[in-house]
Amino acid sequence: MKWPAVGTTTTSVSMTALGSSELAATDDVAAYEDPARIEKQPVCVGSRSWSAGKLGDTVLYRHHRVGNRLEVGYFVYWSTERPWGQNVLSYTVVPALLIDATYSHFLWVLPGFKDVLHGAADVEGVRVELEDHDGKLEVIGGTADDGFHHGVRLSRDDLVDSHGRIVLLTDVWSHQFGAHGGAGAANSGASLHCYEGTTLRPMTLEVAQAFRLGSESSPRRAKPAWRNGIAQVKPTG
To answer: Number of C-alpha atoms within 13 angstroms, CB side, residue 9?
Structure first.
């Protein structure tokens, strides 16, 4: 299966199956309007330096609401993950060659360990936290991973540029979004690939299984996008 393109159709599943368990429990009408509002919010992907791989035509998302707090997990696709670009591995050549010949592509031709362990291509994730103020969603902050898969806290100033766009920034060859200053980079004229409307689409069980992404309860790839930071509140009575 290929990463969804604009205009393609996939088998939809309930939001509960993908981790929005509170959606079924709440009687708040706003919760049912969340997908449309998420898709109206522009999301831009940028990088401080060139790295291998072509971005997908779409960014997929899942969401989770508790009261007036909303979390959106964004899943961003690259066609490959290879250690070439403006980084120390490339400058020293040999480490990049070793990684490329084993992890990325075995002997540069066959699928590498990455494909065996995680699946094809590269999918990275970030979780963005928002608050609903009378129907307007305001970004509070978010979380992502750095190049060593350590969690990184992102502030609103990191994420929201002067045009109100959410900016996801990477500064490593493996594409994780733990770089600070995405909004500042965008305001300074950095090259961005932006998504909005039909290029922002809900994650489906079909895609999660095809790309071995896992689930909220058992995330395998793009882990920050699967995580819920808002406390679960069970209905009483």
So the answer is: 1
